[in-house]
Write a structure and sequence with these properties.
488 residues; 19 strands; 3 domains; coiled coil; alpha+beta
């Protein structure tokens, strides 16, 4: 490559650097609003578009503790990871990845990365990315590092090979921020006045009256709706501005460029609106002390076997109805024949580790239809301890109460991790195979469906939890199988 052309490409990327970093900074700030700065949080979404593209969206906040060298050390580690990206990808995925770089250095904190990966099936996948980064030192210890990557749309010098390789586009933003001792204290003691030098006389503690759960949920919902409406109005104003400036004047090249810039800005504002709304929901999940899980019901079981059975039978109908309503609402707008996956992981302020997962999986070729899938699910439940042991690597045993029938059962599991920590689970599983009402028959072929719902037992007099010996692991699961007609 001639020196002049290389300088032109470098100048083009250098002109983008400041804008890209500013956009990345704004997005991360909006997406992180409401989340605790020192608590881990992770969410991933995987889906297929109607055009057949596979998309993966991931947001991850990881607290790095006791890092010698602080933010600058993390920044340098990120740069080394980018420099060795082909090695990192090869080791992580098991697919051989080579680098076909444009031979650009990191002198100006930006570089181009051209990666080609060969899968185990012999398929070639190519990436053409540009990586921008910066390290900012502010007010002594207050510093942060920022990195962002974006894919190249067109590259005249190194064009995509669509007939030989699958194109894989990616965008990424990384932010590392320092939290010193004072910053930690401010985050931990937010809402409390600082202590005076002298210890005041002990006063009588005044307890704030606890609000009802439904009141808290109502207030949080109203706050979210108000914020979304405010941001939506800002987005509409930007759209209106675009239309006004566009008008009916001749479309000169200069005007087309201006129009494109305004449209890009509008799209970016829309992403920020969505990021802010997602952050508010994530903050609610992470910090709400009275959060109820979907379809969660208080279950208390006494010592008498017949009484326990009557209690569970009374819960079965309402539990399955709630599960059906929730799943139908949660899947609205999604294609029933396209896979979709979302997982959210976070630590609560009380130190609990939570996972929320939603998964739509098409089963093709099931000759027995819904009944075949339902039977397979029941078989999996019957062998749950074996499946858990094989998938997690933790030895799991079953301590069932041996009550229930084909559509109702209690399951008690004890797992032991390689570190010797014991985990206990006490669940009740409800299930049914039925038909939709006439108005809902369009949801499934012949209106046939199968549904399962499990919930954890809050109190069990006969088999109490052992908090001094085991860690309690609660879970709620909802599963629905629908039969859909085959589209020719």
């Amino acid at each position: 490559m001639c020196a002049r052309r290389k300088l032109e490409r470098r100048a083009a990327l250098g002109a983008l650097r400041e804008l890209k970093l500013e956009c990345a900074k704004q997005f991360i700030q909006q997406r992180s609003a409401g989340l605790h700065p020192t608590a881990d949080y992770f969410i991933e979404e995987r889906y297929e578009t109607p055009e057949g593209d596979f998309c993966n969206v991931r947001f991850d906040r990881t607290a790095l503790r006791r890092v010698t060298g602080g933010v600058h050390a993390v920044f340098e580690a990120l740069k080394r990871a980018v420099f060795n990206a082909e090695i990192v990808l090869s080791e992580a995925s098991g697919n051989i990845t080579i680098r076909e770089d444009d031979d650009m250095d990191e002198m100006d904190n930006f570089s181009q990365m051209k990666l080609v990966t060969e899968t185990t099936q012999g398929i070639l996948v190519e990436n053409n990315l540009v990586h921008f980064s910066d390290y900012i030192q502010e007010d002594g210890e207050q510093s942060y590092a920022l990195a962002t990557a974006d894919f190249v749309n067109e590259d005249d010098l190194f064009p995509y090979r669509s007939h030989e390789r699958i194109r894989r586009d990616a965008t990424a933003e990384d932010d590392s921020e320092a939290y010193g001792a004072d910053r930690h204290a401010a985050a931990a003691l937010r809402g409390f006045a600082p202590c005076a030098g002298a210890t005041p006389a002990k006063k009588k503690r005044i307890y704030k009256k606890r609000k009802a759960t439904h009141t808290i949920r109502k207030e949080e919902k109203q706050a979210l709706e108000s914020e979304i409406q405010k941001l939506q109005k800002q987005l509409e104003m930007l759209k209106f501005k675009t239309l006004v400036e566009n008008g009916n004047e001749p479309h000169s090249d200069k005007k087309q460029l201006a129009k494109g810039a305004i449209l890009r800005e509008t799209v970016q504002e829309q992403h920020l609106v969505l990021a802010r709304a997602q952050a508010m929901l994530a903050g609610h999940s992470q910090q709400s002390l009275y959060r109820l899980h979907p379809t969660e019901t208080t279950i208390r079981l006494g010592p008498d076997r017949d009484e326990r059975m009557r209690t569970l039978n009374a819960l079965r109908g309402p539990k399955l109805q709630e599960a059906r309503r929730f799943l139908l609402e949660r899947t609205k707008g999604l294609s029933p024949t396209a896979p979709y996956f979302q997982e959210e992981r976070y630590d609560t302020m009380d130190g609990d580790y939570c996972i929320a997962r939603f998964d739509v999986t098409p089963f093709r070729g099931a000759k027995g239809g819904v009944l075949e899938v339902f039977t397979a699910l029941q078989q999996a439940i019957f062998n749950a301890e074996i499946i858990i042991s094989e998938s997690s690597g933790n030895i799991t045993i079953r301590e069932d109460d041996e009550i229930g029938d084909e559509y109702l059962s209690q399951m008690r599991f004890v797992s032991q991790t390689p570190h010797g920590v014991q985990l206990e689970t006490n669940l009740v599983m409800f299930s049914d195979s039925a038909h939709f009402q006439e108005k809902d028959t369009c949801l499934a072929e012949n209106g046939r469906y199968a549904i399962m719902a499990s919930d954890f037992v809050d109190e069990d007099t006969r088999f109490p939890y052992r908090p001094l010996e085991r860690i309690r692991r609660d879970s709620t699961t909802l599963t629905m199988a629908l039969g859909l007609p085959v589209v020719q």
